Amino acid sequence: MSLRTKLLIAGALGGVGLIVLLFAIFGGGGIRSYLDDNFRRQSASGNSIVYTSTAKPKAVYEQIRSARPPADTQFDPSGYFLRYSDDIVAITSNGTGSKIYVDDERRGYSHWLLFVGGVWGTGGSGDNFRGGGPGGGK
């Protein structure tokens, strides 16, 4: 392989690396930045934020899920739930529109445990507890 070929390959790899780096810094963003950019903030308390939308919950769920794919989702007649690496998003009906709640993982599990606890665990350190009584498989 000639020196020119090696330099072209190195330049191409460097260009791809620069594009990936710029996307990581300026593009994409997390779920919180997406919600800030696309919905109206109603209230905030610490790491918990509530947004509103005039769209129905299912439409909001589809929009968010398409733009920022979650690690997992859960549907309940009470709402749509999306789990991200550090956040939980819940979308509920609000009259003719929707309320969108975003909480950090710990508070989200606590707040929405009734809807996601059996599916996503409890969000606590005791999730691996398998009981203390007699029986096999321990």
Can you put this structure into words, describing what you see?
By secondary structure, this protein is of the alpha+beta class. It is 43% helix and 28% strand. Strands 1-2-6-5-4-3 form a 6-stranded antiparallel beta sheet, with helices on both faces. Strand 1 and strand 2 form a beta hairpin. It starts with a helix and ends in an 18-residue tail after the last helix.
Beta-strand content estimate:
25-35%
Coarse morphology? elongated
**Main β-sheet description:** 6 strands, antiparallel
Q: What separation lies between the terminal Cα atoms? A: 59 Å
* Helical residue percent band: 40-55%
Helical stretch tally: 4
Strand tally: 6
Unreliable stretches (pLDDT < 50, length at least 5) are: 125-133
Strand order of the largest sheet: 1-2-6-5-4-3
**N-to-C order of helices and strands:** HHEEHEEEEH
Radius of gyration: 21 Å
The computed structural class is alpha+beta
Mean pLDDT: 81
Keywords:
single chain, 138 residues, alpha+beta, six-stranded antiparallel sheet, 4 helices, 43% helix
Question: Could you give a short description of this structure?
Answer:
The chain has 138 residues and is of the alpha+beta class. It is 43% helix and 28% strand.
